[in-house]
Structure formats: C-alpha cells, structure tokens
Design goal:
- The protein is an alpha/beta fold.
- The protein has 14 helices and twelve strands.
- It has a seven-stranded mixed beta sheet, with helices on both faces. It has a five-stranded mixed beta sheet with strand order 8-9-12-11-10, covered by helices on one side.
- Strand 2, helix 5 and strand 3 form a beta-alpha-beta unit.
- Helix 1 packs antiparallel against helix 3 and helix 4 crosses helix 8.
- The termini are far apart.
- 49% of the residues are buried.
C-alpha cells in the first residue's frame, strides 16, 4: 500500500473573511492525519522526537514543535488561536485560571518600582493581587473611581506602567470609556489592561478600542456551563510572548481537557450571550418595579449613569445585574435563602442562574472601608442571569421578595 501524504490545508476551513460566529466554531483548528471533525484532546505531558538532534533543536527553539505541555499543547493552542481571533488580537496565552492570567500578565509586564492605577470596582481577588501580592514585590497600586476620568488622571505618576479595570464592573455594572482610558494610558507610556469577563468578545472587543491586553476568566461565560477553571490573556505578540514566558517558567498553564471544554463553550458563545442579555434586561426591568427593591444596577436600564456609553461600546448589556434590598445583610440573606430554583453560588456565566451576597462572598476579603469605596453594601445581591425561562426566574425572585416584604 502506497504511503498517503496528509494535506492538513485540504481538511481545513477558509476563514479569511469569516464572521464572529463562524470563527467561534472553527478558528484555530488544525486537523491531524486522523481527519477528525471535532477538536481532539491531546492529553500528553511530553512529546517524542525523531532523534537526539531533533530534540536538541526543538529545545533550543531552532525548529518549531512541541517540547512539553507546560510549554505548548495542541488543544490549548487551538483555544488560544480561537479566542485571539474573537478578540481581534495577535496572540493569546491560556492560563490555569482567570487569576493566573491576571497575575502572569502583571509579572510579565511590570517590575519592582512600577506603579499601577486600578479601578476600585474589580473582583475582590483582583484587588488582593494588586494590594497584597504585588505590593510585596515593590509594585504599588492606586485605586480609583472607575467612571471618573479625572481620578485616573490624578493618580498617574512618572512610574505608572499599567492601568487596569474590568468593564462592566463586578457587581455594579459600572461602565468605563475604554477608548478614553487607552488614550490616557498611552499618553503616559503605560499599558491599558481590560478584564472583559462580563461581556466576552461577543459583546465587546477592548483591543479594537485601544486596549493593549484583554484578560478573561474562561471559567465564566467562555465556558458557559460552570465545568472548568481557566483563564486567558490576549494582545500583541510582543506582549503575549512575555506573558507566555512567565506561564512556561512558573507553570500556571491551562490543562488540555479544560481547553477542549472551553472550545466547546465558544461554539455557542454568541447564542448564549443573546439569551443571557435578554433575560437579564427583562429581569432588571421587572425588579425595578417591585416593592422592597431600593435600586437595580444594570447598564441596560435607561436610568443607569453609563447607559449611553454601554450602548455605544457594547453590543448588549451582559448577563449580570445586582440590586439593593430594603434593609441590610439580614434582609439580603432572607431574600437569597427564600429562592428555590436559582443556585446560591458565587460563580457566574453559567447556563444556570446564580445568586450571591457579594459583601460576604466575592468581596469578603476586602476591608469594610474598601467595600464601602467599591459600593458593596450589605444590602446588595448579585444575580448572574442564566438561560432559564424568564417567567420562572421572576417567580423565584418573587419568593425572595415575599420573604422581605412580610
């Protein structure tokens, strides 16, 4: 039997002018000689070489090829190339978690003596990364009001090298002007890093607005079903190669299985985000009208302070909202405990709706003063709206309302 020559290009897809939805399904895949349709999982720690000279050349970087799965893995590479295409970035680097992606980005792009300006309205653990972990290594951070451009300007120092934020914010849906902040950062030879976890590239592409790096907790909407933990950073190759160097050396790499799960999540990202957004808007508009609700935080509401900006900057308003109940922690807990369908958990971006009390979960490690500064009240409840029927979600929220409106 004559040897068959495998032409990987013949089995591939022409994506030169493909739309976002098509890239989410097909970008990054390189079929093997097995001609598989779905992406394979390369569950291997190492790779074999033709001979000793081939091994030496690959280790030296003189020829391309895999060496060790802490360095590269074909399944992880497929995920990286796909999310880079969706974010319109040159290169992406997968990590073991969203926090690993943030820490690795900072370790790669900052050094002792540098200064960071960071929004107060970020995930509680992100605050701890800057305020506790990086500070021990000589990197100082000033925290500012996310929507006050003057506070960003005032905080910049001669040694400021990075501006960091997540927009929309967690959990108040505050929305920052990415283009303005990118211009400000670049005026001072600093980088703008945007956590795009809440919107995903289906709704917002910060790199096209001037940001230098985008980070994600892939655990959230990119996966979409709460199955795996992972993270990713996306940006110019010159920056991402530095991040990759940290990942390879320190080891917080993404597992092949998790990368494969995230690839499956990306295939339905656009469809899911449409439903997340429509459900969240409908629920927010309903909550505004209910007794016992003091305030609803969701950029899709026309009275939200940054509604116009969010409408301009994003394709839709996301799947996460928060609201303040009348009273304090006791009433917030009563509301949460009275629900019977939604899941009481701090994760978000799941097909299943989740509910949590930020002050005692996601932001519990912040000092009381920092929580006040971040707008995290004891009466605040966050809901990450899932894909269930909206009437069922309203009915479950009504149980919570009944508990506090006795």
């Amino acid at each position: 039997m004559s040897e068959q020559i495998f032409d990987s290009d013949w089995y591939g897809s022409d994506l030169s002018e493909a739309a976002f939805e098509t890239l989410a399904v097909r970008a990054g895949q390189r079929r093997t000689p097995e001609t598989e349709h779905s992406e394979p999982i390369f569950t291997t720690s190492s790779y074999v070489f033709k001979n000793a000279a081939d091994a030496a050349a690959r280790f030296a970087g003189d020829v391309p090829g895999n060496v060790y799965s802490r360095y590269t893995n074909p399944t992880v590479r497929t995920f990286e190339e796909r999310i880079a295409a969706l974010e319109k970035g040159e290169q992406a680097v997968g990590a073991a978690s969203g926090m690993a992606a943030i820490l690795s980005t900072c370790m790669a792009l900052l050094k002792a003596g540098d200064h960071v300006v960071c929004s107060r309205s970020v995930f509680g653990t992100t605050t701890n990364i800057f305020d506790k972990v990086l500070r021990k290594f000589g990197i100082d951070t000033t925290f500012v009001d996310i929507v006050n451009l003057e506070s960003w300007q005032a905080a910049i120092k001669p040694n400021t090298k990075m501006l960091f934020l997540e927009t929309p914010s967690n959990p108040l849906s505050e929305t920052a002007d990415i283009r303005q902040l990118a211009d400000l950062a670049h005026q001072h030879d600093a980088l703008l890093v945007v956590d795009n976890c809440f919107c995903t590239p289906a709704l917002q592409q910060p790199l096209t607005l001037g940001a230098d790096v985008v980070v994600h907790s892939a655990t959230k909407f990119l996966d979409g079903q709460g199955r795996c933990v992972g993270g990713v950073a996306v940006g110019r190759s010159e920056l991402m190669n530095e991040v990759l160097g940290v990942i390879r050396t320190a080891g917080p790499c993404m597992s092949p299985f998790n990368a494969w799960v995230f690839l499956k999540g990306l295939e339905t990202l656009s469809l899911r985000m449409e439903r997340h957004c429509s459900n969240a808007l409908a629920l927010a508009e309903w909550l505004v009208q209910q007794p016992g609700i003091e305030k609803v935080h969701y950029a899709g509401l026309k009275n939200h302070p940054q509604h116009a900006l969010a409408k301009q900057q994003q394709k839709a308003f996301g799947g996460v909202l928060s609201f303040e109940v009348s009273g304090g922690k006791a009433e917030a807990w009563q509301f949460i405990d009275a629900t019977k369908m939604v899941s009481i958990t701090a994760n978000l971006g799941d097909a299943k709706t989740t509910i949590t009390h930020p002050a005692t979960t996601t932001h519990c490690r912040l000092s009381p003063e920092d929580r006040v500064n971040a707008g995290i009240k004891d009466s605040l409840i966050r809901v990450a709206v899932g894909l269930e029927a909206i009437d069922d979600l309203k009915a479950d929220m009504a149980r919570g309302l009944a508990a506090i409106n006795k």
